[in-house]
Fold:
Amino acid sequence: MSAYLPGTLTDLWDLLEEADTAVMAGGTDLLVRRRAGKCAGRICCLERIPELRGVQEEEGVLEIGATTTLTDLLESATVAARLPMLHQAVRQLGSPLVRNQATLGGNMCTASPAGDTLPALYALGAQAVLLSRRTERVLDVAEFIAGPGRTALEPGEILARVRIPLPEPNAVQHFEKVGRRRALAISVASLAAVLRLDGDVVRDIRLAFGSVAPTVLRCAEAEAWLTDRTLTADNLRHAAGLVRSAVLPIDDVRATADYRRQVAGNLLLRLETYRP
Amino acid sequence: MIIRFCINGRDTELDVRGDERAVDILRERLGLTGTKEGCGTGECGACAILVDGRARLSCLTLAAQLDGRDLTTIEGLGSPEAPHPLQQSFAERGAVQCGFCTPGMVVAAADLLARDPHPGREAIREALSGNLCRCTGYSRILDAVHKVDER
Ligand SMILES: Cc1cc2nc3c(=O)[nH]c(=O)nc-3n(C[C@H](O)[C@H](O)[C@H](O)COP(=O)(O)OP(=O)(O)OC[C@H]3O[C@@H](n4cnc5c(N)ncnc54)[C@H](O)[C@@H]3O)c2cc1C
Ligand code: FES
Ligand code: FES
Structure:
């Protein structure tokens, strides 16, 4: 096998024309899978292509290059100030050593049901910008993630950047992950929520649950029910019931499906703390 | 492919295969066996090295990725004659038992101190959360980093 480190997109497109070529960003998923004997073949590293890295704000939208590392995100003042839920999700992902090399694009392209940046990206209404030699297309993150471990990427195409519309400064952003232990814990269930409050009445609310279905689950039933209602424990309890019937969790080594269903509902109850 | 990099202050050139990892060439080709391989999958931190000043897992890095970079391994941080303050502090405070985790711990701590010269215990715990130790129970390691400036 060979490894390549193109410095420009033009060189990258040439390399991607050869069969059996995988792109690699931080390598924290790809090289682990490779060690397990999967995905042999050529590796094309994206780390030396400057256009794919960095955080930029433009007209209320934050553009994050796909190969921006998770440590870069934690150190970005804009992410900390304007996207606290993403900041929190990243802070709890892996360890500092993993985050120093793991990238946001890598987390999205892995498309794991437990991918820790995904619930926040769904709740924020993020979009994926896909690039190939001849085309650029923009997909909502929910379309980009095609299923567990699957994305909408075509051969010869890469994820170039992520666009996140910045929520208004007074919107509530909430993220909570329940795992087995802190460092390196793969999540058992997580909730990312963005809501706008008018007094204690919910006006807009987006709820995205991680690890409780084959992909991130936006719970439209609970969102609709909470809209224009007060953020009280009773109302949240009712909505939590809707969440528990919407989720499609599995049993695995980390938790049973029943436990995940319970936890998913309980995560919602926490929103009461934002009641003014 | 031929790669060139600076390791522990020395310019080096090496012909590497695409499937060789950074940890392989450090240990097997350059004789720098201070860097350890524990899990090989990113979970233990024993293989951490500094790449352009930031800690990185050498088991999840291809040798080819080192081209043009500035590397520091545990051997480059200090020597038995002139140890790095962290190495001195680990030795003096009993933070080393079998020593397998120590190089990775020291490298991760060096990355932390470069950005935050006086971290609190919680910041140290967080910075070392990707480094596993099977022997010490961590409190002496936290002490060694926390009190690195004290004699
Ligand atoms: C010890 C350890 C702990 C971890 N803990 C967590 C955790 O708590 N939560 C979590 O969510 N994940 C965790 N992970 C998984 C992993 O670190 C993350 O998913 C990370 O964000 C992957 O990013 P990467 O840049 O390393 O991806 P890579 O390994 O480089 O790539 C992953 C996949 O995406 C593809 N790819 C990457 N970038 C692009 C792109 N720009 N365009 C097209 N395809 C691309 C690659 O071909 C590959 O298939 C952990 C991993 C390790 C080793
Ligand atoms: S050997 Fe690299 S993290 Fe364990
Ligand atoms: S001293 Fe033995 S693993 Fe840490």
In short: Chain A touches chain B through 27 residues (CB under 8 Å).
